[in-house]
Each structure stands twice: as structure tokens, then as C-alpha cells.
Amino acid sequence: MSLRVAALAERLRRLPQGLQFIAVGGSAAATHLLVVLLLVGGAGMAPLLANVLAFLVAFGVSYSGHAWLTFADKKAPHAQALPRFFLVACSSFALNELLYYLALHELHWHYAWSLVAVLVVVAVFTFVAAKCWAFAHAAPH
To answer: Distance between CA atoms of 60 and 55, rounded to whole angstroms?
Structure first.
């Protein structure tokens, strides 16, 4: 790891958890949005299908960042945290897709602005579920 990357990682680890969540979530959301824009604008894919593919790409960014940074102090084993966080992410995505559909087809908002609004709303649910359940270290039985 280069000195600049190590210095950046150390600064990120000193941020309050909420800001870490925003940094990781913002990176995942930017990834999600960029993939949708590329697939819709560049490949002519339907927005709702592009959103599914973008979710899968952004999940990798999100889980990695939250496991490494945001919830690293929880020390939840990956065998527990990964499937739980995937369930949280899928639940968040279902809410995302529903709200995105409503914004596109009922409100007739632009696909990009609709997705930005939806991603912000769903982030609150994701934080609470990830902190309180997905990355919560289970007590041994």
C-alpha cells in the first residue's frame, strides 16, 4: 500500500462512524449511478434493468467498504456479515426498485434524478439495519 493510500485510510478510520458510512455509501451510490448512466446512456438499456446490474456492482463496493471501515469495530465474521448484509442490501434494493419505479412511472421524473433521490432515502434504512444486525457480532452459543 502506498504512503498516500495508507494516510488516506488512516484519516478515514478516524472519522465518526456516520461519516464513514456516508463515504462508503457515497462511493457505492456513485458507482451505482455511474453504472446506470453508462448502461442507459451508453448501451441503451432500460433503466430498471440497468438498476439491477448497477446494484450488483455497487454491492461489492458497499460490503467491502463497510466491512473494512464503517463496521470494522464490530468484528463480525465475514461468514455471518456477508449473507446478512446481502439480505439488508437486497431489502434496500427492493425498496429502491419500488421507489424508483414510482418515481419513473407515477411521478415521471428523469431517471437520473429519480435514482439520486431514491438512493438517499434508502440509505437511512441500510445504515440502521447494517449496524444493528448485519455487522453485529453474534454472541457464541
So the answer is: 9
